[in-house]
Amino acid sequence: MKKIIKLSFQTTIFVLFVMTAAVLITAKTDKVFGIQSFIVASGSMEPTIPVGSVVFTQKMASYKKGDVIAFKQGDVSVTHRIVKVTKNNSTINYQTKGDANKTADQNKVSGKEIIGKQFAFIPQLGKFMVFAKTLPGFIIFVIIPSLFFISFEMATVLRELDKRNFVLPDHMEDLKKINLYQYVRYEPYFRNG
């Protein structure tokens, strides 16, 4: 039972680490398969994409009506649905609208402003990521799991040492005279009985 709990805990920590790393890396760059991620901060796409979700986007050659895209609007990244595609000469513009909004966005989006098309999202993960950046979040999600992991590993090492029935010399002078290699090599000298 202890092995199952330990394996479950280690697997959970590993999965959380990989997910966190993937979100953090794709939030800063689109160099990993062209994928970029964003935390949804407003309810304009609810109920399709809830506030606090992490949206993953990827640059495409073309976009069509109905696609959910992320684009730059000033310094802010916006995730809305394309409701209309218009062509002016050689440029294509996209009219977007949040699913929860009553009207379409005033400004049309050009192809070069589009960051990518949404292909996946993970609900509530953004809230976790924002909380993890705070001191309490860092303590809960980094320090405490690290301490658990270290204690599990220490317990494993101590159990192994106990199986070998090691007894340390009584005097520190004896410890100074031997090194670890000699200690392991001549372990029968340090066994009880």
TrEMBL record:
Bilayer-spanning residue ranges: 7-27, 138-158
Domain spans labelled Peptidase S26: 17-75
A molecular-function term among this protein's GO annotations: signal peptidase activity
InterPro entries, per database record: LexA/Signal_pep-like_sf, Peptidase_S26, Peptidase_S26B
CDD domains: S26_SPase_I (cd06530)
Transmembrane in keyword set: yes
SUPFAM superfamilies: LexA/Signal peptidase
Annotated Pfam families: Peptidase_S26
Signal peptide boundaries: none
EC number(s) on file: 3.4.21.89
UniProt keyword annotations, A-Z: Membrane, Transmembrane, Transmembrane helix
Superkingdom field: Bacteria
GO BP terms: signal peptide processing
A GO CC term attached to the entry: membrane
Subcellular location: Membrane
PANTHER family the record matches: SIGNAL PEPTIDASE COMPLEX CATALYTIC SUBUNIT SEC11
Protein name: Signal peptidase I
The organism of origin for this protein: Candidatus Roizmanbacteria bacterium RIFCSPLOWO2_02_FULL_36_11
